[in-house]
């Protein structure tokens, strides 16, 4: 079998089936019972029943189905998808930990996969011995480890304790040592799981930096993550898995945008009819829409956000619209009311009006935001409707080595001066 | 980091040399036939094999006062125990051999067998954390067990020779092994095959029936009492039921062989055909089943 020379990995119609109710370990007596009941033509008493009362014999579950893709040399390919979409299963197949049920995966060159750091560390052995052990487990030759030993030790930053048994290490030191070994693997294709992005900020920065180096130096990298900022910063192409199938693959920006658009629980628009319009005796909401000011698909951090509210004013006295912004932890970030910038709000006659409030760019930190909308009348709140619309703020790709989520509810771009 | 290692330094636009004219290096398919042992793959991972052997040998006795001396103390204590209980107290006739030498000649090979069988049988469970995270030929851990146990065995064997020479020099027993000593490697290989085959078989079956993990300890012990470790075979009456049971044990000729070869006693080496056949069957069956479960093992744990 041959293929264009720069294709280093090819998956063709790959599927992985798990059999529910078959892989479970049963006691011998159960097997015996099942056998005798079968002889008598009765239902197997040891099988679990589903809600309908039918037996779940050989119930199949395809964790992955019909997955095909190619990876070119030097490409950084991202794999995204929700939990349970099949990302981990695909990783396990590519890393040869388990075998596919159907399809063929072909690879060229040395492929290393990092599903965790420090795999196989033995607590009784010294840090030095464990470098050799872990290296060997990851497929490094001894001569290779010999040559890189000093680099690995200095990268780990634990020179002083390198001859101490690993069981005396803190968990942080263990992770650093494990990562130091992994960072010095020089495979032609590197498969990395997002578990690598756990750990403290410092470690994340280091691992992401190393990933970036690998990517920039022309190494082929397959990268699985939930972190869209990292995806957009590192990957040239992305595969989106959904329910075990490839939902979409293509250039990072396109796929990520489609994924976020599809995936966020956001309801960016809400319309009410004549009967069910929420409100009070002073006014009612008819339509609320939140959208990026640029008209794009994503609520990018660097883009302003328009909140458009169509409302009915039922009285001729002044009534003020209020917007509250909450984050996903239900913390109030900010609230604003129409009177802040609109003096004519005082003089609005009754009837239907459209108000647009614009939140400036470079304001909210990335994450889900939820809006509540209400009306104030006579110095008190007439009504407040929670959870009206929601959306997800997305950070732009970063140039540095740190791709984790920053803390805080806001993320501003402030002018810094140095004297 | 040397430049030559770094394939990434290839300037953009040039063809990646590593790939030119290369077909696929690895092709992953749903099922690889059980008879494909992939010895080449095991050879590629020989450094892992040696690292695991090193780990087994060094880590085991860490934080013990005696450390590696335990390798020598263990068979010695067992032999002394047997010598006292069966040789002195039960006054079992040992055909004139000094009890210590008589028992060491069997206890050392026996413990080699029992350690390899028990550890290999548990290999999938003990290495599960590794096997669910990294690929390597799944036969590597059992082979490393075999390697580290073989090393321990050789050290213990050396101890036997030291004792035997001491008996000879001190004049308390004229130890004089014959040409049978040359059969030692054959016996070792036979025993290794038996232990590996049985261990792999049990390991494969244990994934379905966890009970076997408990049974194996008793089974190995039972096998010991069914073999001439604690008594000379000649002591068991010919034609008796007990004799039949003992002779049904494929390890009997092996243990008798070790004793004959090490002590220079009469040796019926023609009886070795029996363990040879059994070990061949066990190896084929064990490998086949092991290969079968290793494919799906990571899905089940």
CATH class of the largest domain in chain A: Alpha Beta
Q: Outline the low-pLDDT stretches of chain A.
A: 49-56
- Average pLDDT figure of chain A: 83
Strand fraction of chain A equals 25-35%
CATH architecture descriptor of the largest domain in chain A: 3-Layer(aba) Sandwich
User: Could you tell me the number of beta strands of chain A?
Assistant: 18
For the termini of chain A, the CA-CA separation is: 65 Å
Main sheet characteristics of chain B: none
Would you give the CATH topology of the largest domain in chain A?
Rossmann fold
Structural class of chain B: mainly alpha
Classify the oligomer.
heterodimer
Instruction: Spell out the helices and strands of chain A N to C.
Output: EHEEHEEHHHEHEHEEHEEEEEEEEE
What amount of the residues of chain B lies in strands?
under 5%
The best one-word shape of chain A is: globular
Q: Which ranges of chain B are low-confidence, i.e. pLDDT below 50, for 5 or more consecutive residues?
A: 1-21
> C-alpha Rg of chain B, in Å?
23 Å
Number of domains of chain B: 1
Keywords:
heterodimer; A: 419 residues; alpha/beta; Rossmann fold; Coagulation Factor XIII, Chain A, domain 1; 3 domains; 6-stranded mixed sheet; 5-stranded mixed sheet; 22% helix; B: 301 residues; mainly alpha; globular; disordered N terminus
Short description:
The complex is a heterodimer of chains A (419) and B (301). With 419 residues, chain A is of the alpha/beta class.
């Amino acid at each position: 079998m041959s293929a264009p020379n720069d294709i280093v990995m090819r998956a063709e119609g790959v599927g992985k089936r798990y059999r529910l109710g078959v892989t479970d370990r049963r006691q011998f007596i159960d097997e015996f019972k099942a056998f005798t009941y079968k002889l008598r033509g009765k239902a197997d008493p040891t099988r679990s029943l589903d809600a309908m009362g039918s037996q779940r014999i050989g119930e199949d579950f395809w964790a992955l189905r019909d997955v095909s893709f190619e990876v070119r040399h030097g490409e950084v390919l991202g794999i995204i998808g929700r939990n349970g979409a099949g990302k981990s299963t695909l990783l396990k197949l590519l890393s040869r930990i388990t075998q596919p049920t159907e399809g063929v995966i072909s690879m060229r060159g040395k492929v290393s996969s990092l599903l965790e750091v420090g795999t196989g560390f033995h607590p009784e052995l010294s840090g030095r011995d464990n470098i050799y052990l872990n290296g060997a487990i990851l497929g490094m030759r001894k001569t290779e480890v010999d040559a890189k030993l000093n680099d690995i030790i200095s990268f780990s930053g634990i020179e002083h304790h390198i001859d101490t048994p690993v069981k005396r290490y803190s968990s942080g030191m263990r992770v650093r040592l494990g990562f130091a070994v992994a960072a010095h693997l020089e495979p032609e294709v590197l498969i990395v799981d997002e578990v690598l992005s756990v750990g403290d900020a410092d470690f994340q920065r280091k691992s992401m930096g190393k990933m970036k180096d690998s990517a920039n130096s022309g190494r082929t990298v397959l990268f699985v993550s939930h972190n869209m900022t990292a995806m957009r910063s590192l990957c040239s192409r992305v595969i989106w898995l959904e329910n075990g199938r490839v939902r979409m693959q293509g250039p990072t920006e396109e796929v990520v945008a489609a994924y976020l658009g599809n995936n966020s629980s956001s309801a960016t628009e809400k319309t009410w009819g004549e009967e069910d319009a929420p409100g009070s005796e002073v006014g009612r909401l008819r339509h609320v829409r939140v959208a990026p000011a640029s008209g794009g698909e994503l609520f990018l951090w660097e883009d302003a956000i328009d909140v458009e509210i169509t409302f009915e004013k039922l009285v001729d006295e002044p009534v003020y619209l209020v917007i509250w912004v909450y984050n996903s932890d239900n913390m109030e970030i900010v609230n604003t009311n129409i009177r802040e910038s609109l003096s004519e709000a005082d003089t609005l006659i009754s009837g239907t009006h459209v108000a647009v409030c614009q939140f400036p760019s470079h304001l909210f930190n990335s994450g889900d935001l939820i809006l509540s909308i209400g009306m104030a009348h006579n110095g008190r709140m007439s009504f407040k409707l929670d959870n009206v619309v929601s959306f997800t703020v997305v950070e732009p790709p970063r140039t540095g080595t740190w791709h984790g989520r920053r803390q805080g509810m806001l993320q501003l771009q402030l002018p810094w001066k140095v004297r | 980091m040397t430049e030559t290692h770094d394939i990434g330094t290839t300037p953009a636009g040039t063809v990646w040399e590593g790939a030119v004219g290369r077909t696929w290096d690895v092709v992953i398919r749903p099922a690889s036939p059980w008879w494909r042992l992939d010895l080449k793959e095991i050879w590629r991972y020989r450094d892992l094999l040696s690292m695991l052997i090193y780990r087994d040998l060094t880590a085991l006795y860490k934080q013990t006062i005696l450390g590696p001396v335990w390798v020598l103390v263990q068979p010695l204590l067992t032999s002394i125990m047997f010598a006292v209980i069966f040789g002195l107290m039960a006054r079992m006739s040992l055909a004139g051999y000094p009890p210590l030498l008589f028992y060491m000649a069997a206890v050392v090979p026996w413990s080699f067998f029992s350690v390899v069988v028990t550890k290999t049988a548990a290999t999938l469970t003990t290495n599960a954390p590794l096997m669910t995270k990294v690929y390597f030929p799944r036969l590597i851990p059992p082979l490393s067990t075999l390697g580290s146990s073989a090393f321990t065995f050789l050290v213990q064997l050396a101890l036997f020779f030291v004792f035997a020479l001491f008996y000879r020099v001190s004049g308390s027993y004229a130890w004089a092994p014959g040409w049978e000593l040359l059969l030692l490697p054959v016996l070792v290989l036979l025993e290794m095959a038996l232990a590996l085959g049985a261990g792999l078989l049990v390991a494969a079956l244990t994934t379905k029936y966890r009970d076997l993990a408990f049974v194996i300890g008793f089974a190995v012990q039972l096998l010991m009492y069914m073999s001439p470790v604690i008594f000379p075979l000649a002591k068991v009456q010919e034609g008796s039921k007990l004799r039949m049971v003992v002779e049904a044990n494929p390890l009997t000729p092996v243990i008798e062989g070790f004793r004959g070869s090490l002590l220079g006693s009469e040796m019926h080496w023609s009886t070795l055909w029996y363990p040879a056949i059994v070990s061949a069957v066990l190896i084929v069956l064990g490998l086949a089943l092991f290969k079968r479960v290793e494919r799906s093992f990571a899905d089940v744990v």
